Amino acid sequence: MTLFSLINQEKNLKLLKNIIANERTANAYIFYGPEGSGAEGFALEFAAMLNCISKNDLPCGNCPSCRKIKHLEHSNLELVFPIPVRKDNSADSDPFKGFSAAEMENIQEIIHNKSQNPYEKIAIPNAKHIPINFIRETKRKTYLRSQEPGWKVIVIFDAHLLTEPAANAFLKILEEPPEKSTFILTTSNINAILPTIASRCQPIYFPPLSPAVLKEFLLSKNIPENQTQLIIRLSGGDVSQALNFIETDLNQIKDLTLDILRAIAVWNIEKIYKYVEKLADLYRKDSAQFKQIMLSIAFWFRDAIIIKEQLDDSELIHSELINEIRKFADAFPDFDPYSASSSVENCIDFINRNVYINLALLNMFFNLHHALNSGKKNK
Questions:
Q1: Whole-prediction pTM value?
Q2: Which domain holds residue 129?
């Protein structure tokens, strides 16, 4: 059993075990894959494997080293992550200089949450990059004599967010790495890593978790089976997002989806404008939830095709709304599902390209209404 609560990725776990068994630890690795695939959690697990006193295949979880790493408090473990940059910070200053006590307390809480859930992102408010002073401070600590046996493990989360100066400073460390130390870069965007850095790291790919694996995981968390499909699809295979949905009222998403579709179906222009404003406001406040609503609308049309063509209804994403979907398919037997899906996708694309969001949403509503009634107009 792993020290951290990790899901699947047995192939990579076996690879890490072999590295330990053969004593072939490299100076640097890149653990890469889509968000929520487990790269960050396995980086922490590898740190525990390299420092566990029991020398078993997996961390014992009981020795002092395991207990410290479990709480992310081991002196051999250094964590690097994006932080807000203060204007008064120089390249050689403490990276946390100028942070208030409340900000530091918040960072400690975020790191604690990471220790409890390895799929939780270390997301500091207003953090966009990893600055050079964080790398220089890490270098200073890494070259100090180790106070405990084992390997120094430096985990750089979201390594694609290293600034150019920080990346160049890190490259110099890789050219002359300290003894018995290894660097693990985790990223969901390996192409953004400086090629000269990537060439010095052993890459290990963490593929997205399959829907079957995620479903098994969600069921183990006592999530009703009729909600798992929607959570899996809305999370995009990201475990951390799926866990967030466990604490989210999915009924709000489903109810809003239904209300929007009803307004489009009868073309209640007053409600249409109301939902344009509501969605635009949601996008500005919580872009992730906005995307979830948009996906929920797109999934509705996918489900309607399944009902319309009498396919396997176990594949329904909105499975608990099967009666409403059937009524919809009966009311609009000739609707154009491909045009409807394209309307949602195009709207998201327009918004990503900074098209005025209210105009993009209104255009989507017009196109959806047309897609629902296209069969009637062609008769």
A1: 0.78
A2: 10-208
